[in-house]
Amino acid sequence: METEMIMASTTMTPDISNNVTSNTSSPSDNDYFAFVLYEVVVPILYGIVTALGVTGNSLVIYVIVSKERMRTVINFLLLNLAIADLSFVVVIPPSTAYVFAANR
Description:
Blueprint: H1 2-12, H2 16-19, H3 27-66, H4 73-102
Helix pairs in contact: 3-4
């Protein structure tokens, strides 16, 4: 009688492994997505940020330095801000993009 109950309990338990469907992508798809994201998209975005930052800050520096009329106290403060931002934009985004690409 006890063996019949054990047999009945094992046959009545559904096999969960057959009922589960997998919605995950294959490892090759995940590897391709990670490659595109970290080695293509992120460096391109950081490159765009760097290019826009260098262009904008360089224009501000050029205008303030080249125009005699623009040399006021407030504009010298803006000049210092543009120089600091230019040095930040030249160093940080390219090094961060390199770290993203190199640590993969």
